[in-house]
Amino acid sequence: MNITSGGEIAEFKTLKVITEGAVLFVEIAAPPMNLLGPELIRDLVSLIQRAEADNSVQVLVFKSADPDYFISHVDVTSIKENREAAAKLNGDPSIGQMLRHLSASRLVSIAQIEGRVRGVGSEFILACDMCFAARESAIFGQFEPSFGVIPGAGGAQHLARLMGRGRALEVMLSAHDYNADLAERYGWINRALPAAELGEFVKSLAHRIARFPAAGHATVKERVNAICLPSSDDIRRDSDLFLEGTRTNQFKQLTQIAMENGFQTRAAEMNLAGLVYHIQGKRTSEV
Amino acid sequence: MNITSGGEIAEFKTLKVITEGAVLFVEIAAPPMNLLGPELIRDLVSLIQRAEADNSVQVLVFKSADPDYFISHVDVTSIKENREAAAKLNGDPSIGQMLRHLSASRLVSIAQIEGRVRGVGSEFILACDMCFAARESAIFGQFEPSFGVIPGAGGAQHLARLMGRGRALEVMLSAHDYNADLAERYGWINRALPAAELGEFVKSLAHRIARFPAAGHATVKERVNAICLPSSDDIRRDSDLFLEGTRTNQFKQLTQIAMENGFQTRAAEMNLAGLVYHIQGKRTSEV
Amino acid sequence: MNITSGGEIAEFKTLKVITEGAVLFVEIAAPPMNLLGPELIRDLVSLIQRAEADNSVQVLVFKSADPDYFISHVDVTSIKENREAAAKLNGDPSIGQMLRHLSASRLVSIAQIEGRVRGVGSEFILACDMCFAARESAIFGQFEPSFGVIPGAGGAQHLARLMGRGRALEVMLSAHDYNADLAERYGWINRALPAAELGEFVKSLAHRIARFPAAGHATVKERVNAICLPSSDDIRRDSDLFLEGTRTNQFKQLTQIAMENGFQTRAAEMNLAGLVYHIQGKRTSEV
Question: pLDDT tens across A252-267, in order?
Fold first, then answer.
């Protein structure tokens, strides 16, 4: 990746990367709905590795090519492959550890959010260093508990630290959708901005940060992470609990019912909060 | 308690309990002003024990039968009896440990707040998993420091974690009343809502949560509590410091003056922030 | 300092101190722009020592004689002298430890903020027990990373705990100016108030707090600090990292360029966020 030459880097399958000076603008484009599956994970791992190896890169901006979905959630049909792909970054086979690597990196990462950010999508933006969202279109959810499992990639860790006990419990136990204004009030994101201003705001901020000395960024991140970043042990424990949960009959049954009702399809997930509620009536009470 | 049959459970003296599926709606009715005394504590202990023993119960909603007082505060004339009653839950003779038990329970607890929530009332709602308050009527106070003592049942612990240092100090050192909007901005509660919408909102949320698998609730609560819930040691230490404070001449004198000025009466406590300020002029400077 | 007599205490060079009962109103007056240099530090150390030794003092209110600058930032031309002056308070030669001493004091400190509060100015108000700011005029910045260094006196520690990871990183890595409303939303301060109401609000709050028993204040502060106050080790580590950073050629070059462009002058720092961005173009890329 020769980012000093500027222009587009065309080697990723699910990412469109544009360089502008020390800033990489990374557009997530994994149709039909930006599910986080093995291909997108492989591209993210590769991107992070190459950007970290290139001292001319200072800031990563993540956005989506899909106005309705930033990252919808994990592809539940490929949990094993996802973990194998994530392990390529630092040996630990969990998406949570991959995301924690991004948080701990010297690179500054900014999420520019339009559309839906649920499950591991929420965990992805929580792992970024900053998040700004379009007031009109961004929608947030950490809905894993509606399938009887804990978020697997650090969501509970981050939300508890950012929002405090009551709001973190509400968000996860309700499995509800939250708009950008409420997400801002709860501390889920830095700020909600009008969609028309969001791109320019983030671009300007990214270039501003990239202009300052890299040494300061690294030290500030290290000291802030020492206070706020969940430990590897906590991330690993949540990942293990999630995996355990996915092996229960209850999870398998709920997932199957969900798939039959449109889960992991673009149209049905426009209202995922409704879908996950609806499917509960179809599970047997005993599982 | 046979909650599967639905309808009202009439065995409590200070609680009116209605079951709807896996949700218990618990109305606090301890006239004249919902002081937390031995009788209400005994009923709460009994309710929690029986609900925990009944796997068909998943969610508790607490509200008040009195539009002006949710829980006014602890009955200071029965501190010893309160502790004995609280000890029935898990052996530890402190209201703080009783409340911590509720926080750590597999049960999901929601406070639906209208009226005044001060002192141990605030500590009660902070121990619930979520709090929603009526914008027009809810009033919050953690006023114990106006009597020279720390909150005795975890208030300082929760407020410091939810609001941060400056706001927690302001709330306690000022012993002021806070309305629901400010309480929301400070993170004291999840959200302030119009009174006309509050009941329906909480009811809908409670039933939504109750519909999701219990296994997810328990795991999420366990992981969030590991980060946010004050330790038993911290709760016990605050309880001890509170008790020590109540044994000083200063506390005794202030309490006596307060009682002579309407403390623990319905009318005078409508403006408790004024009352606790007023009584300071009557204490001797030496105590 | 005989505060019981009331009236003005005229012995400080950079502070104007007025006593009203148990409250000291301290006006910072170090023209031309309230830089924190050795003289102001010596006065602050002396004030804190004498107020702590006088049991009739309970509350300190800090405000500024300059409507545009509360405390602008540290005087970078006197870093060594600053540390020697700060060491007089408790032996540790760092402004961060001096400020931590104030946070841990039995005295209740309130910052009444008009004008700019940047760098160590922000760290000063974060060390106070509460902060209230004029909505129209207060401006906040923690801009040290634009010089390649971490905030040296606890800023990163406090901001990370108050705002959470994303907002703290944004504030420091962007080195931007923040107005009072955004500072409130981010938890940097307790509240933004209309300038016309600020003085009366703080005065009333200070006298209210001072009227309550001192024993309660001390215990509440001790318990809240145990949760929220950065440890001495963390403050010292940040101070050391800052010092290391100031010894690099990059910092020295940036400081020199900044001084040539108006840094530490009243007019140029009205828009410091612009100045620190502008100077980056003049540094050599190699340092």
Answer: 999 999 999 999 999 9
